[in-house]
Design goal:
The protein is mainly alpha-helical. The protein contains three helices and no strands. Helix 1 crosses helix 2. The longest helix is centred in the middle third of the chain and has 31 residues.
Length: 72
Amino acid sequence: MRETLTVRLSANTKKLVERAANASGITTSEYVRLAIFHQLWRDVTTDSRRKAIPRATSKGIFTDEDVYRLVS
């Protein structure tokens, strides 16, 4: 089920969003939905890294190679 969210933008920002959506070949609404989804994803991954890094370093895991050695 979809719900409506109203967002206020400056005229300039609205024009930029409309141009970007047009250039992407999608609707303005879809462009905004994707932008919100991508930001939420970045927030989740940043939060996960913030929590995981101290735990990993306490176990001697500092690099991608360290992780690879553990999972291979």
